[in-house]
């Protein structure tokens, strides 16, 4: 007997089909609880390797491992029901060869049961994207600013600010689309270039710091909630949870110190929400 959920989870082809439709809403999540909240409003949940910065306090995403991505990817799948869950392939897990990428992506998909993976790079990763897509692994591309290359880029600067720099980024977008990616994240790219790419390629573009001209948008959840100590300038804040959490912790500490604390009969009376 098969047990099927009545809720159908979105798939990579569903997102691909949104090219000329309603804008795609995407946010990051790394935990079951935040995934359940994001799931109610988003088409795609990205288990981004930004978890290295956000959860672990690393300066860059370079130290993030495949095991870290799989652990958090599985948590997000448990917490969500509707959204397509895309798990980032971390630095060092896919660049050496298309076979290395395949084995890493298969681990991610089997151990998390997510619906797709994301990897950084355009022209240089096109062969790998085609290899994975042709073997049952939906791939989301990521071009423009590619944070895993920080050590060769030197800084997290916006890309394509001058027209002379457009060519390679346009080539990357075309290569990723032609290789069979179902969508592509375009990061920190000037508005006219993001618009041109979005009008030119056949797959949806999902912008982060790349203007409203894209087919959808993604933000790091903790950045838009006001929980990250440092956020890029382009991030619009939809909450200010950092000070709210600090105030709650302060009240808790004061209650404990003044012995104003509920007894065990209340502690085990579980409240919902
Ligand atoms: O790792 C991440 O969260 C990302 C987004 C910033 C697109 O790749």
Can you characterise this structure?
With 273 residues, this protein is an alpha/beta fold. It has one domain: TIM Barrel (Alpha-Beta Barrel). The protein contains twelve helices and eight strands. Strands 1-2-3-4-5-6-7-8 form an eight-stranded parallel beta barrel, surrounded by six helices. Helix 8 runs parallel beside helix 9. The longest helix has 17 residues. It is globular, with a radius of gyration of 20 Å. The protein starts with 11 loop residues before the first helix and ends in a 6-residue tail after the last helix.
Q: Could you provide a short overview of the structure?
A:
The protein has helices spanning 12-16, 32-39, 51-54, 66-79, 98-112, 126-133, 150-153, 166-179, 191-200, 221-224, 241-257, 264-267; strands spanning 24-28, 44-47, 84-88, 116-118, 139-144, 183-187, 205-208, 216-219.
């Amino acid at each position: 007997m098969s047990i099927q959920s009545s809720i159908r989870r979105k798939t990579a082809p569903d997102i691909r089909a949104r090219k000329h439709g309603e804008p795609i809403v995407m946010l990051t999540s790394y935990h079951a609880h935040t995934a359940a909240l994001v799931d109610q409003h988003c088409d795609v949940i990205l288990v981004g390797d930004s978890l290295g910065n956000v959860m672990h306090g690393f300066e860059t995403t370079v130290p993030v491992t495949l095991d870290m991505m799989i652990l958090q990817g599985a948590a997000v799948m448990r917490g969500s029901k509707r959204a397509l869950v895309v798990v980032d392939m971390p630095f060092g897990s896919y660049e050496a060869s298309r076979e290395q990428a395949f084995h890493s992506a298969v681990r991610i998909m089997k151990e998390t049961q997510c619906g797709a993976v994301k990897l950084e790079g355009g022209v240089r990763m096109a062969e790998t994207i085609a290899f994975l897509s042709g073997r049952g692994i939906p791939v989301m591309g990521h071009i423009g600013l590619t944070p895993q290359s920080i050590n060769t880029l030197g800084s997290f600067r916006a890309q394509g600010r001058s027209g002379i720099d457009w060519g390679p980024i346009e080539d990357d977008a075309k290569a990723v689309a032609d290789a069979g990616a179902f969508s592509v994240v375009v990061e920190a790219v000037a508005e006219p270039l993001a618009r041109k790419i979005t009008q030119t390629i056949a797959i949806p573009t999902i912008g982060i710091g790349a203007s409203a001209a894209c087919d959808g948008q993604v933000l790091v959840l903790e950045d838009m909630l006001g929980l990250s100590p440092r956020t890029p300038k382009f991030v619009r804040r939809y909450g200010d949870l950092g000070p709210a959490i600090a105030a709650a912790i302060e009240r808790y500490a004061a209650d404990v110190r003044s012995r104003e604390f509920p007894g065990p009969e209340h502690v085990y009376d579980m409240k919902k929400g």
